[in-house]
Write a structure and sequence with these properties.
This protein has about 400 residues and is of the alpha/beta class. The protein is built from 15 helices and 14 strands. Strands 5-4-3-2-1-6-8-7 form an 8-stranded mixed beta sheet, sandwiched between helices. Helix 1 crosses helix 3, helix 10 crosses helix 11 and helix 11 crosses helix 13. It binds adenosine monophosphate. The site of adenosine monophosphate has 12 residues, from helix 10 and helix 12. Homodimer.
C-alpha cells in the first residue's frame, strides 16, 4: 500500500487538511472545516471523486478533527487503513531557530508556542491543531513544517530592517518571509519544467493567492522576498494591506484613538482588495469591474501597480532573470492579472504571449513569447505535497522520494 501523510493547516476558526501520497504525489483526500465554534460549522471532504458536506455545530478544533475522521470512515475508510505514516503540520512562523522539518514532541510544541508572541495571529492555532491531532492520533509521528523555513538564510541585507539594531536584536525583529514551502516547491518545479539546473536559474516567483508574496531566487536560494516580520508586508493581498507607511498606524492609534488590536485586525482582515472594493475574490472583483464599479477598478489598479513595482525591483536585484513564474489561486487562474503585471516590460526582456496566457490549461506551462529572453511560466503550487514529502523524509529518511 502507498504511504500517506495527513497534512493539517490549522487556522483560528478553520482546519484545512489533505491526505497525500508523498511518493506518487496523489492527493487521496482533502477538505476543510470552517467556522469552528459556530452553530453552523461547515465540514467538507473530497475523497476518490466523492464529495461530502455537513453543516453542524462544531465546538472546537478537537471536535473538528473528530468529525473529519468520522467523515473519512463514512466515505473512504478509517485513516488506519489508508497507509498513514505521519501527520504534517503547517506552522507559519519558525522564528530565527526553527526551520528544519522536525518530529514533534512536547518540548518542540513548547518551542513553537514560545514564538506566539512574534506571530500572535498564526502560531497559536497551529499549536492548538498540533495538540489536538497528537491527542487523537497518538501512535503516528507528527512533524512540523515551517512556512518561514525557505527564507531562513535570506541575505542579511534583505532580512534586516533599518531600525535600531539593539531593539531589533532584543525583540527578534527581522524579515522572515512566508509562503516558503510554495516558493521553494514552485522554483524547483520551474527548473524541472525548463530542464535547467536549479543552481543556474535566476527566477522571480509570484505566489498570488488570497495571501500574496513575491520572491527573487538565485540558483535555488532566495535573495529577497516581499513578506517581512509578519505576512502583512509586501504585495496588496485579498484582505491584507501589504506595504504601508508605519506612520499611519501611529496616526490611527494616537489621533483616531483606535486600539492597536483593531488596527491590526483592519490591516489584516479589512484591507487589501477587500478594503478597497468590498470583495477579495478576484472572480467577483472582475465582475464588479465589468459592472462599472470604480472602487473595484481602483482596487485592481492598486494591486497591479504594487505587483509591477516588486517585479521591477526583483529584476534589478537579480540582474539577468531567466524566469518569472505565477502560482496560487490568482496567479494560476487570472490571465488579466498576469497580462497587466507584465505588459510593457519587453525592454526589460519580458514579453508575454497573449494567446498562451489566455489558455485555460491547468498544468505547468510557458506563457511568454517565443523570443522573450525571460521565460514566463504558470506553475500550480502544491504546498500539501511539499509538506507531505518533507514529513516522509523526516519519518523515514531512507525511503523519501526527496524530489
Ligand atoms: P489561494 O489562496 O491560492 O487558494 O487563492 C484563492 C484566491 O484565488 C481566491 O480568493 C480568488 O481571488 C483567486 N481565484 C481562484 N480561482 C480563480 C479564478 N478562476 N479566476 C480568478 N481568481 C481566482
Amino acid at each position: 500500500m502507498q504511504r500517506t501523510v495527513l497534512v493539517l493547516n490549522s487556522g483560528s476558526s478553520s482546519v484545512k487538511y489533505s491526505l497525500v501520497q508523498p511518493e506518487s504525489g496523489v492527493s487521496v483526500a482533502n477538505g476543510i472545516i470552517e467556522r469552528i465554534g459556530d452553530d453552523h460549522s461547515l465540514a467538507r471532504l473530497e475523497f476518490g471523486g466523492l464529495k461530502v458536506e455537513r453543516e453542524r455545530s462544531v465546538a472546537d478544533h478537537e471536535a473538528a478533527l473528530r468529525l473529519t475522521f468520522d467523515l473519512f470512515a463514512e466515505v473512504g475508510g478509517h485513516l488506519g487503513t489508508l497507509g498513514l505514516v505521519a501527520v504534517g503540520h503547517r506552522v507559519v512562523h519558525g522564528g530565527r531557530d526553527l526551520y528544519q522539518p522536525t518530529l514533534i514532541d512536547d518540548a518542540f510544541v513548547a518551542k513553537i508556542d514560545a514564538l506566539s508572541a512574534l506571530a500572535p495571529l498564526h502560531n497559536p492555532p497551529a499549536v492548538l491543531g498540533i495538540e489536538v491531532a497528537r491527542r487523537i492520533l497518538p501512535d503516528v509521528p507528527h512533524v512540523a513544517v515551517f512556512d518561514t523555513a525557505f527564507f531562513h538564510d535570506l541575505p542579511e541585507m534583505a532580512a534586516t530592517y533599518a531600525i535600531d539594531r539593539e531593539v531589533a536584536q532584543r525583540w527578534q525583529i527581522r524579515r522572515y518571509g512566508f509562503h516558503g514551502t510554495s516558493h521553494e516547491y514552485v522554483s524547483q518545479q520551474a527548473a524541472k519544467f525548463l530542464d535547467v539546473p536549479l543552481s543556474q536559474l535566476n527566477q522571480i516567483v509570484l505566489h498570488l493567492g488570497n495571501g500574496a508574496s513575491a520572491s527573487a531566487i538565485a540558483g535555488g536560494r532566495p535573495v529577497d522576498t516581499s513578506m517581512g516580520m509578519t505576512p502583512m508586508e509586501g504585495l496588496v493581498m485579498g484582505t491584507r494591506s501589504g506595504d504601508i507607511d508605519p506612520g499611519l498606524v501611529f496616526y490611527l492609534a494616537r489621533t483616531a484613538k483606535i486600539p492597536v488590536e483593531e488596527i491590526e485586525s483592519m490591516l489584516n482582515r479589512r484591507s487589501g482588495v477587500r478594503g478597497l472594493a468590498g470583495v477579495n475574490d478576484f472572480r467577483e472583483l472582475h465582475k464588479a469591474i465589468d459592472a462599472g464599479s470604480s472602487d473595484a477598478r481602483l482596487a485592481y489598479e492598486v494591486y497591479i501597480h504594487r505587483l509591477r513595482k516588486y517585479i521591477g525591483a526583483y529584476l534589478a536585484v537579480l540582474g539577468d532573470t531567466h524566469a518569472i513564474t505565477f502560482t496560487a489561486g490568482v496567479g494560476e487562474n487570472d490571465a488579466h492579472v498576469r497580462r497587466d503585471a507584465l505588459t510593457g516590460l519587453a525592454p526589460l526582456g519580458v514579453e508575454i504571449d497573449e494567446h498562451l496566457n489566455d489558455s485555460p490549461a491547468r498544468s505547468a506551462r510557458v506563457i511568454s513569447a517565443e523570443n522573450s529572453p525571460t521565460k514566463v511560466l504558470v506553475i500550480p503550487t502544491d504546498e500539501e505535497l511539499a509538506i507531505a514529502r518533507a514529513c516522509a523524509a523526516v519519518v523515514d529518511p531512507g525511503d523519501a522520494d526527496g524530489e
